[in-house]
Amino acid sequence: MEQLNNDVVEIDVKELLLVILHKWWIILLIGIVGATATGIISKYIIQSVYTSTAKVYVINRQDATTMTLSDLQTGTQLTKDYMILVKSRSVMEQVIGKLGLEMTQEEFEKKIEVNTPEDTRILEIMVKYPDALMAKQIVDALAEISSERMVSVMEMEKVNIVEEGNLPIEPSSPNIIRNTLLGGLVGFALASFICVMIYLMNDTIKTTEDIEKHLGITTLGIIPLEEGVNKKFRKVKQSRRNRKAVLAS
Fold it and tell me: Is pLDDT above 60 for 202?
């Protein structure tokens, strides 16, 4: 870090990199602690969530024996209506009552996700729930009840359930591996930032290079401290500490 004016400071990137390399063990330790803590929290504290997905096929034939392009285009438009119908109040209330779920309509709606792949008449209904079996039962009930409701409201022939909900084996969240890696990266970044900030805030002069860099003057020479004087100085400091300890006691 080199001072150009009273208010302008130039930062030497290489010098900062050397500071980080010099403190590599502290940065590594904090990174490991961050990764370990995040992994433990993700595995033992954060509640696991399972996702079950059911698929329905939306089509409205004008003729039961043939399928026209108009039928396919109409089916594509109907999937948009179906997406809204799945989360309708009447459908969710029926599912909650059928399965005896102890949650409000607003809480239940947050566990449902509905989407349709582009240019298809397939509707995907996904339910996220802490219990894998219950997630499957909920999505199956949603597909069944919403299909019946769609046929009734739109006066369609039928809505076909392509796939019933799967029974998830592994939780969809939290992602323990991803969270552990993110925790480690955050630890590394935070430790590096702290080391750099401590270095930048330290304006003490330690070497002759610091004198030339910060004060803009050249040192004429260095006066070394003799070994005997250095030992004597340490003894004086030690005796002062002992004397303070005695007075304090």
Answer: yes
Which of 155, 149, 159 minimizes the C-alpha distance to 88? 149
Could you give the CA distance from residue 16 to residue 31 in angstroms, rounded to a whole number? 19
Q: Which residues contact 194 (CB under 8 A, 6 or more apart)?
A: none
Per-residue model confidence as pLDDT tens digits over 203-219: 776 666 666 666 667 76
What's the rounded Cα separation, in Å, for the pair 111 and 130? 10
- Does the CA dihedral 209-203-17-9 come out positive or negative? negative
Q: Kindly list the domain boundaries of the chain, sorted by start residue.
A: 2-41+176-248, 50-163
Q: What pairs with residue 63 in β-bridges?
A: 66
Whether this prediction's pTM lies above 0.70 is answered by no
50-163 has which fold?
A: Alpha-Beta Plaits (3.30.70)
Per-residue confidence band for 4, with pLDDT thresholds at 50, 70 and 90: very low
Whole-number Å distance between alpha carbons of 82 and 54: 14
Question: What long-range pairs does 130-134 form, CB within 8 A, spacing at least 24?
Answer: 130/47, 130/48, 130/49, 130/50, 131/50, 132/50, 132/52, 132/167, 132/168, 132/169, 132/171, 133/167, 134/99
Give the number of other Cβ atoms within 10 Å of residue 50's Cβ: 22
Maximum CA pair distance of the chain? 110
